[in-house]
Design brief:
With 185 residues, the chain is mostly beta strands. Helices cover 11% and strands 43% of the residues. It has one domain. The protein contains one helix and twelve strands; from the N terminus they run H-E-E-E-E-E-E-E-E-E-E-E-E.
Length: 185
């Protein structure tokens, strides 16, 4: 009987002590909010065909690029004349930025025209890839498994799709259609 009484007294004392420690104790610090995502501007409402895009950004950068103020250019410059690169001007948080889509170094070579080009697991300069670079040089680069697809290329205009994840300061994903005009088109 005495041991039961001792156990009850101890439990009661322990409960009172724990309750007392909680009173007047500072509250746990509030969870820190993660910084808000960067925002892509949709672009001007009246869009000419050469400026039309439909690229959705989610994650660390959010928004749906529909149009940019200047046409997107395609280049196939030296030293890789076969490498097709679309340089798409975008506005992120009200500042100019660039979203670049590249088919890699084999595009345009025999047997390598319109089609799907997968971002490899070990990314190199001549590989299919895409990236977003802000004015302050913050950059997100395509992750393995991303896809750059050229749907049409008539020699003056190129249309395609892009889909996949990007790594950078935080995770990001893009999907949608892009287009560009070749120099002199």
């Amino acid at each position: 009987m005495r041991s039961r009484l001792t156990a009850r007294v101890m439990a009661s004392a322990l409960g009172t002590l724990m309750l007392g420690l909680g009173c007047g104790a500072p509250a746990a610090p509030a969870a820190t909010r993660s910084p808000s995502a960067h925002k892509i501007s949709a672009g001007p409402p009246n869009c000419q065909a050469d400026s039309a895009q439909d690229i959705i950004f989610t994650g660390d950068v959010v928004g749906n690029l529909k149009c940019q103020s200047a046409p997107t250019s395609c280049s196939q410059g030296q030293p890789e004349p076969a490498k097709l690169i679309a340089t798409i001007p975008v506005m992120v948080d009200g500042r100019p930025a660039t979203f670049t889509v590249s088919t890699g170094g084999t595009y345009g070579l025999p047997g390598h025209g319109p089609g799907a080009y997968e971002v490899p697991s070990r990314l190199g300069a001549g590989d299919p890839q895409f990236e977003l670079q802000l004015t302050d040089m913050t950059t997100w680069v395509s992750s393995s498994g991303g896809m750059v697809t050229v749907l049409t290329d008539d020699g003056t205009h190129v249309r395609g799709t892009v889909e996949g994840g990007l790594t950078g300061p935080g995770p990001m994903r893009v999907s949608g259609s892009w287009g560009c005009a070749r120099a002199g088109a």
